[in-house]
Amino acid sequence: MAMVNALVQKMHDHWAAYLIVFQVGLNALGVSLIFCMTIIRKGSLKETAEVMPKLHERVTDICCGMNMDIQDLLKLKTRHRLIVRGLILKAVDSVSGAYRENLEKLYRDMGFLAEDQKLLHSSSFAKRLSALSRIDILKDSESAGQVGKMLHDPSPYVHFAALKFLLKIKCPKLYVNIAKELNLLKDLGRMDTAMQILEMYASASPEDFLELLKTHQSREVVSICLEVVNRLQVVEALPIVKDQLIDGLRCEGFPEFEDFDFRRYTLCLTMAPDEESEEILQKMTRVETAFVRNVAYLSLLKIRPDLKMEITQRLSVDESPHGQRLYRQILEPAKALRKEA
Predict the structure, then answer these.
(1) Is 83's pLDDT higher than 80?
(2) Which long-range contacts (CB under 8 A, 24 or more apart) does 313-318 make?
(3) d(Cα 77, Cα 97) in Å, to the nearest integer?
(4) pLDDT > 70: what percent of the chain?
């Protein structure tokens, strides 16, 4: 029995020794691989650093219409082709006319656009999104058909990237159920993206945008539309803005009055002020709600600076916190000027 135990112990000792040797060998192999990869990476970085200026010069020449033969570029290694692709994408937005056309042609002739279009069908949403972003930078309208199919993409990121691209290039065959898109954004908690989409929508389909402003039931969506109207100075929206603002004033005393975005409506009235706009604002200064009076006063001051004295006198007897705050705000610049004098 003692002999058996001794043999077992001896085998355990041998296995332990073998395991130690194996572990040491494995560690040595790992260190060797890391060392080799580091050497290769350094060599690759050095090679890239040497090649980069030459590739940059080639792309610049082609952009300017010189040395258009690209046979040398077609023979590049994969990593150097990617450098050329990056240089084109970086430069294409900073040039226009023939320069941009030359870069776009180079992108197509190098096969990059075909590769991007192929990647639109990739099983990886990240690859689809990356390919779409590159097509978006190029604003390649010929890809609109393929990108249009991506409106049905299961990834919301790809879906909205496709929608933005189609709105940006003002695709004539595009039909967008913008109300549905906004509901989807709300469900995803991404209403911060709605402003950008609605700005593109207003530029691509102005009549449909005005219809959205006129008919949409969501106060949140209407407020974003008003912001777009103000940012893009969509003066065609003013008749709708005025009608809705008058309807909103009639709701004083009702719950919906509290949710009405008077600030954005009055800002829109300052875009192209006329007698009707001033009349509406003057009417607003006589409502009971102090906040509404204030936004009306501010817009009046913007379109009629000559009313400053009259508005200041009216605010001086306004006992509401809102009125007193605006009164002090108007007086502060005058006080500062007197101190400087």
Answers:
(1) yes
(2) 314/285, 318/290, 318/293
(3) 30
(4) 83
- According to DSSP H, which parts of the chain are helical? 2-63, 71-74, 78-92, 97-109, 112-119, 125-138, 144-149, 156-168, 178-187, 194-204, 206-215, 219-232, 238-249, 255-259, 262-269, 275-284, 290-303, 308-316, 321-340
Nearest to 88 by CA among 123, 124, 115, 120: 115
Residue type, 1: M
132, 113 Cβ separation under 8 angstroms: no
Q: Rounded to the nearest 5 degrees, what angle is found at the Cα of 150, between the Cα atoms of 147 and 153? A: 165
Q: Which tokens sit at 6?
A: 């001794």
Q: Show the CA angle centred on residue 199, arms to residues 269 and 105, nearest 5°.
A: 145
| Angle between helical axes of 97-109 and 112-119 (0-180°, round to 10) | 70
For residues 48 and 83, the answer to whether their CB atoms sit within 8 Å is: yes
Give the pLDDT of residue 341.
37
SS (H, E, C) 40-99: HHHHHHHHHHHHHHHHHHHHHHHHCCCCCCCHHHHCCCHHHHHHHHHHHHHHHCCCCHHH
Number of C-beta neighbours around residue 56 at 10 A: 15
Pairwise CA distance, residues 191 & 220, whole Å = 9
Please tell me the least confidently modeled range out of 61-65, 132-136, 224-228: 61-65
Q: Torsion angle, CA of 137/132/180/195, rounded to 10 degrees?
A: -30
**CB under 8 Å to 139, separation ≥6 — which residues?**
168, 169
pLDDT at 252 over 70: yes
pLDDT digits (tens, 9 = 90+) for 97-130: 999 999 999 999 999 999 999 999 999 989 999 9
Extents of the domains making up the chain:
236-331
Rounded Cα distance between 268 and 284, Å, is: 15
Provide the 10 A C-beta neighbour count for residue 145: 11
Report the C-alpha gap between 83 and 55 in whole angstroms: 8
Q: Encode pLDDT of 219-238 as tens digits.
A: 889 999 999 999 999 999 99
pLDDT at position 305, please?
Answer: 93
